[in-house]
Amino acid sequence: MPFTALGLAPPLARAAAELGFTTPTPIQHDAIPAVLAGHDLLATAQTGSGKTAAYALPLLHSLQATDARHTPRRVRALVLVPTRELAAQAGEVLRSLAQHLPQRPKLAVVFGGVSINPQMMALRGGADVVVATPGRLLDLVQHNALRLSDVQLLVLDEADRLLDLGFAEELDRVLALLPARRQSLFFSATFPPEVQALAG
Ligand code: AMP
After folding, report:
1. Counting beta carbons within 10 angstroms of the beta carbon of residue 59, is it exposed (0 to 12), middle (13 to 18) or buried (19 or more)?
2. Rounded to an integer, what distance in angstroms lies between the CA atom of residue 23 and that of residue 107?
3. 51 Cβ inside 6 Å of ligand 1
4. Greatest pairwise CA separation for the chain in angstroms
5. What local confidence, expressed as pLDDT, does residue 70 receive?
6. b/e string for 167-189 if b means 16 or more Cβ within 10 A?
7. 3-state DSSP call for residue 196?
8. From the CB of 46, is ligand 1 less than 6 Å away?
9. Per DSSP, what are the bridge partners of residue 131?
């Protein structure tokens, strides 16, 4: 089954094909129509399952369908990841998949361990998609570089690792800044009680 049969816009299917993705993986097959329909998602996903594109493709599709005006510090979709490596990887996948869209979304990738100033500059005028590690995201909120009250779509990628790495408190603080009405996509390789509690 081609990606367009799942409801994705042709420019997204074309970008996927250029990455060598011609047939959806099982998680993509199940997740993409559900996300496009506006549902929340709780997915068991190992690395290697194709989970990044499983959220990146419908996220990009949905952003095209909604108002793209940038207002200062506004963020429309937020992807939280546990490590800078994963942030960079997810950012790359999003950038590649977005390349043929008529309205290329503005993407910012932010993580700790590097200077915050270039990240603050990059966020000027808001961003359609922010990929972030939780600590640096909160630093940026504190610096008034972005606000999270307009986030329509939240992705937690590798939720179990986020908790393993001690981000529980940061996650709670981020969740408290998000609007109650939003779509939430939750990916985790394992579902121990702490992850279930967070999902709840
Ligand atoms: P992920 O689980 O998102 O880390 O992806 C694992 C690997 O699968 C990455 O190298 C992707 O480039 C690749 N991949 C993702 N979706 C597909 C697909 N539909 N067909 C072929 N390869 C894919």
Report:
1. buried
2. 26
3. yes
4. 46
5. 61
6. beebbeebeeebeeeebbbbbbe
7. helix
8. no
9. 79, 109
For residue range 63-111, list pLDDT tens digits in order. 998 766 666 778 999 999 999 999 999 999 999 999 999 989 999 999 9
* Ligand 1 pocket, residue 57 CB under 6 Å: no
Mean pLDDT, residues 154-169: 95
Q: Per-residue pLDDT averaged across 156-173, rounded? A: 95
Q: Are 108 and 131 in contact (CB under 8 A)?
A: yes
Report the C-alpha gap between 45 and 48 in whole angstroms.
8
* C-alpha torsion sign, points 174, 180, 183, 189: positive
Q: What is the bridge-based pairing of β-strands 127-132 and 75-80?
A: parallel
What's at 126, amino acid-wise? G
Contact present, 27 and 57 (Cβ < 8 Å): no
pLDDT reading at 44 higher than 70? yes
Q: pTM of the full predicted structure? A: 0.96
Which amino acid is located at 135 in the chain? G
Q: How many CB atoms lie within 10 A of CB 121?
A: 10
Ligand 1 center from residue 71 Cα (angstroms): 33
- Res. 196: pLDDT tops 80: yes
